[in-house]
Design brief:
mainly alpha, 3 domains, three-stranded antiparallel β-sheet, globular, disordered N terminus
């Protein structure tokens, strides 16, 4: 027996324990979610504020997404996983911590049974949080000891952290896709497929109204509305495949890799039809609360996770979709830079945090601008992580950049914009908190936004769009970048012109720091004018 064969055989029990640990956690979460939804005499919406009830349910879904993203990262980077989990299952005492977490999470069951009012909100949320932390910690320690997790995080945290943050935020951001749900023909096809499957399963007396899209029997009916059509899953899968194809384009064989689009979309549609069919089956078999509550709440996200993992598994394992690399040339290739020292990461990551924080703010707050200081803290944190890249730029005062910034501010201020009659962007803040909001908004507008936006649009995106070296390529890239830059601004025409001017400033001396300076001057003058005039709609 060779050494490699012996090592592979030794890792097989560890892989088994790894799978068992994930299955155990999944079963625990599902059991807890079902118990609190259907096994307790407590109506959340009748006693607690609606946002609390919804976010409690979404938090459980967020943990499902966390498991899916973790599995995805393990699939993309299997070597660190093998090192991390090589002793999985060698110690069983961490399962006691996991069990203690389950017990702690069950305590609110006693507190809330038959209770009314809002008195149990704080202790229940705290107990659920502590219980979830203990459950996750127990499983993590069962998979690997603390020192091995420390080594794993030291080498992988820069990629793991944004992925985990995105997974935890995904359920809360899903409402942003609601405007694209109104596609009638997809709902029609989904309804027809569900009705056909139910009749195939023997439900011959099923009532099905294709006009109202009502389907069911006896006392249980569901409506396959546009929101159930599966367009959300199609959009998410399309976005996911697009990101995967872009990030791993060097490893994939094109145009064959484009087959992942129809495969992923078809799988998403099929899973959505299966989800609705199972939901209807559970309801007709005497469990309507389980169908509408537990299964309907979480099945969509779990199935999207399965589709995403399936797409990655297909791309990773089918030789026809992947390029073959020469081993010798790969061995002599220069090692990649650490994650946070990569200039591309410095150009993209702050913008990703900037956009993600905007989506979270618009999802969780009725007045998103009121939580702007929190976004400033997040932007400062991510810029601090990649600041060596920005510190290495050629920072110097350029009179032309100053003049362009002043010109942009002048036409931005002179073109009239009416003050809105809605609530002020700072909400109900007053006193010291209001002053702090203005300071944070000013710092973000004048310092952070120019750095983040110029690094992404002019530093990264425009460079990638220049597929050639000629003047036509440079102009085309500048126009496309300016158009995308304008799409982020309500005053898109003014922003489009500003984007073109920032591109010219950056290209003039080949220095992105000049564009940052010009952008900062423009924002500073606009912000000062808005504050003095009281017309905050200007910014």
């Amino acid at each position: 027996m060779t050494l490699s064969t012996a090592q592979n055989q030794a890792t097989r029990p560890a892989r088994v324990f790894l799978v068992l640990a994930i299955v155990l956690l999944f079963v625990e979460l599902t059991a807890l979610g079902t118990l609190f939804k259907h096994g307790i005499d407590f109506e959340c919406l009748a006693n607690w504020p609606q946002p609390v009830c919804r976010n409690a349910s979404r938090s459980l879904v967020a943990i499902y997404c966390l498991l899916g993203v973790t599995a995805l990262l393990f699939m993309l980077r299997p070597a660190p996983l093998k090192t991390l989990t090589q002793d999985a299952g060698s110690r069983f005492w961490p399962l006691a911590i996991n069990g203690a977490g389950v017990l702690v999470a069950l305590v609110p069951f006693v507190l809330l049974s038959g209770a009314t009012g809002r008195g149990g909100i704080v202790p229940s949320l705290m107990l659920w949080g502590v219980g979830a932390a203990l459950m996750l910690a127990g499983i993590a320690l069962f998979i690997a000891p603390l020192d091995r997790w420390r080594d794993y995080m030291a080498s992988e945290w820069s990629a793991l952290l944004p992925a985990v943050a995105g997974a935890l935020a995904a359920p809360f951001l899903s409402v942003g896709l609601q405007p694209i749900w109104s596609i009638e023909w997809i709902a029609d096809q989904t309804f027809g497929a569900v009705a056909w499957l139910m009749r195939l399963m023997g439900y011959d007396q099923l009532y099905a109204d294709p006009v109202q899209k009502m389907i069911g029997a006896d006392d249980f009916f569901i409506k396959v509305a546009n929101v159930c059509s599966g367009i959300e899953g199609i959009a998410l899968v399309t976005l996911f495949v697009s990101l995967y194809l872009w990030l791993f384009r060097k490893d994939l064989r094109f145009p064959r890799a484009f087959l992942l689009y129809p495969i992923g979309i078809a799988a998403s549609v099929a899973f959505n039809i299966l989800r609705i069919t199972i939901l209807l089956f559970i309801g007709l078999e005497g469990n309507p609360e389980l169908a509408v509550g537990g299964f309907h709440s979480h099945a969509g996200w779990m199935m999207f996770t399965l589709v995403a993992l399936g797409v990655i598994a297909l791309a990773q394992t089918v030789p026809a979709l992947r390029k073959t690399h020469d081993v010798t040339s790969h061995a002599t290739r220069a090692a990649p830079l650490p994650f946070l020292q990569d200039p591309i990461v410095a150009q993209i990551l702050p913008f990703a945090v900037f956009m993600l924080s905007a989506l979270v703010a618009s999802t969780l707050s009725q007045i998103p601008s009121a939580v702007y200081p929190i976004r400033v803290v997040l932007m400062c944190g991510v810029l601090a992580l990649v600041w060596p890249y920005f510190r290495g730029l050629a920072w110097r005062i350029d009179p032309v950049a100053l003049a362009v910034g002043a010109f942009i501010a002048a036409y931005w201020v002179l073109i009239p914009v009416e003050a809105t009659d809605t609530a002020p962007p700072y909400g109900t803040l007053s006193g010291v908190m209001l002053v702090a909001w203005f300071v944070a908004r000013g710092f973000g507008t004048i310092v952070l936004i120019p750095i983040i936006e110029e690094a992404f649009f002019r530093g990264y995106l425009e460079t990638r769009l220049r597929l050639g070296t000629g003047l036509a390529w440079r102009i085309g890239a500048a126009l496309m970048t300016a158009a995308l830059f304008a799409a982020l601004h309500g005053r898109w025409a003014e922003a489009f012109v500003a984007g073109l001017l920032f591109s010219w400033v950056a290209a003039r001396r080949g220095n992105i720091a000049d564009a940052i300076l010009s952008h900062s001057v423009a924002n500073a003058l606009i912000f000062a004018t808005a504050v003095i005039s009281g017309n905050l709609a200007m910014i």
